Amino acid sequence: QVQLVESGGGLVQAGGSLRLSCAASGSFFSHNAMGWYRQAPGKGRDVVATISSGGSAYYVESVKGRFTISRDNVKNTLYLQMNSLQPEDTAMYYCSNILPPQYWGQGTQVTVSS
Q1: Which of 102, 98, 93 is nearest to 45 (CA)?
Q2: Is the pLDDT of residue 26 over 70?
Q3: Whether 8 contacts 22, CB under 8 Å
Q4: Looking at 4-13, 23-32, 79-88, which range is the least confident one?
Q5: Where would I find the beta strands (DSSP E) of 1-114?
Q6: Closest Cα partner for 51 from 25, 77, 75, 27?
């Protein structure tokens, strides 16, 4: 059974930083491309950043230069370092594998105040 557990969210002022973590089941994680997604109230769930099993990263334009995705295949953990946070980054953040079937955790809330 695949399990994903996100953590690290919170309330931060604009310009601040947070580091999200996603702990994953062992054998599932190391062989899969992973991603961070976010869902703001009343909106759909959108990809924020992805990383291949080998470490190649992709970012949506709105977070380039501010967010950094990384992974530790020994600790089976995915990370998202978020700097220069803005109110528009406020959302529930989820980690997931890229290819279907996708598995989801419970998410971690990020709230950025202006």
Answers
A1: 93
A2: no
A3: no
A4: 23-32
A5: 4-7, 10-13, 18-24, 34-39, 45-51, 57-59, 67-72, 77-82, 91-97, 108-113
A6: 77
In 10 A of CB 3, how many CB atoms? Answer: 11
By the 10 Å C-beta count (0-12 exposed, 13-18 middle, 19+ buried), 55 is classed as: exposed
pLDDT at 25: 82
pLDDT in tens, 54-79: 999 999 999 999 999 999 999 999 99
Beta strands 10-13 and 108-113, pairing class: parallel
Determine how many CB atoms are found less than 10 A away from the CB of residue 67: 21
- Report d(CA 1, CA 11) in Å as an integer: 32
| Angle, CA of 100, 21 and 101, to the nearest 5° | 10
Closest CA to 32 of 48, 55, 49: 55
